[in-house]
Structure formats: C-alpha cells, structure tokens
Amino acid sequence: MTNELVLLKLGGSLITDKDKPYTPRLDKLKELAQEIKAAQDSDPGLLLILGHGSGSFGHVAAKKHGTRDGVHTREEWLGFTEVRYQAAELNRYVLQSLLEAGIPAMPFPPSASMVSDQRKVVHHNVEAMRKALTAHLLPVVQGDVAFDETLGGTILSTEDVFTFLIDQFPAKRILLAGIEDGVWGDFPARTRLVKQIQLSDYEAMRSGIQGSASTDVTGGMKAKVEEMLALIQNHKELTVQIFSAEKEGLLTRALQGENVGTLLTT
What is the pLDDT of residue 246? Predict the structure, then answer.
C-alpha cells in the first residue's frame, strides 16, 4: 500500500475530439475510469485528485471570446458564462464515467470556488476538498473560468489549479495524461521522444519543444513543460510525468509508478 496522494490530469485532447467542437470521447472516458478504479482497488492507499482539460468544449468558446486574456465588457462576460457552461457540460460526462465505474467522484469547479490574480490562484476554500479526501471521495477539478483580481475574469488551466493545490496537499507526483507519447525534442516531426527532462537540461532542448497541434488557449506542450518545471523548482521532491493514455493500460502503469512517457525532475 503506497499511502500517497497523486494529482492526475486527463487532458482535453484525450477525452474529447479537439478538432470537432463539443465532442466527448465516451468510450475513452469509460476506459480511463475503469483504469482508475482498478488502480485504486489494487492499492487502497492511493489517493487521487483528478483534473481534466476542456478540449473541444471550453477551448472553442474561449478562443472565440478571448476569455483567458481578460473579461471586462458585457459581451465578454456573456462569453465568460458560455465558456463556463461548456466546461460544465464536459465535466458531467467525466463524472458520469467515474460514477458508472463505481468511483465516488465529487466536482470542485474552479469557477465556483477559486479567485485568481493574473491567473495565479489567490483564494480557494480547500477545506471541503480535504473532507472529500478524508471520506475517500475523488475530488474532480477542471480547466474552467475564474474571477480574477486584475483581469476581471480569465481561464485557469488544470495545471494552474494544480500549481495552487500542490501547496495545499502533500502530493509528490503529478501525472499529465494526453495523446502525445510524451515531450518530443523535435515536434511536430515526432521522431525523438525525451524520456527525462531535468531542470538543468531544459534550456538546451527548449527550441525543439513546440505548442499544440489543436486549439489550446492555455498554451500547449511548451507552456505545460515550463509551468511544471517552475513548479518542480519550488518543490524539489516533486516529479511530473507527461504521457499518452491512448493505449489501454498506460494510465494504470503510470499510476503504479512506471515512467511511460517523459519524466520531469530536479
């Protein structure tokens, strides 16, 4: 029994068809939920906080309204609520798959509980989430809109949310599951997969790491890697794994501690 807490993200590209607006991958969601359930059944000491991206739901609406850059006008606030609606729609599909797999999942949408300043979370009542974990429920966060002290409103990615939560909970591992096998040193050619990135090595390889092949208002792979490395710099014991959960079983192996993609470390 591990007796550890892991932050797990299911990327929007994994759980939706990012090139077809508002299209969930229901079979994939069912499979991923079953893998999570199997991992927890085999190791009752494994606690998770699950996050998921917005994929073809939130990102399409967010790009149309420019929501991540700030919300001030009446029209922009209308867009803000549209992005929230679409993010909630996808969240319902995620929760349904978890509940049908027998996982007691509880949503904690950032729009209802988090306030940020320049997209950095500055207020969140984490006590309810602590109680959920104590009751062995699965807290579920997501990429979502949030009120922002400087920007009025914005969009927080799951990584933004995890950056805050890692200061609140004793997690030593973050798992980011998507469709890419990991971090490519030569994206979009995808011939050179980087198995491990250490802080000291990143500058030499950063030019080969690019953004995203689909609509992603929160920056794509390069932004993800740099955000996670900054987090590791402040939390020396933390490791982050970026990997594909497209093939059945890879999520289970990652939850069990195997490096099936790219490992980010100090």
Answer: 97
Please give the distance of CA 147 from its chain centroid, rounded to a whole number.
19
Distance, in Å, from the CA atom of 173 to the CA atom of 66, rounded to the nearest integer, reads: 32
Map out the domains of the chain as residue ranges. Answer: 4-265
Q: What is the pLDDT of residues 112-152, one digit of tens each?
A: 999 999 999 999 989 999 999 999 999 999 999 999 999 99
| 195-202 contacts, C-beta under 8 A, 24 or more apart | 195/259, 195/262, 195/263, 196/259, 196/262, 196/263, 196/264, 196/265, 197/225, 197/229, 197/262, 197/263, 197/264, 197/265, 198/264, 198/265, 198/266, 199/229, 199/232, 199/233, 199/265, 199/266, 202/226, 202/229
CA gap 254, 262 in Å, rounded:
11
CATH number assigned to the domain covering 4-265: 3.40.1160.10
pTM of the predicted model as reported, rounded to 2 decimal places: 0.92
CB environment 45-57: b (16+ within 10 A), e (fewer): ebbbbbbbbbbbb
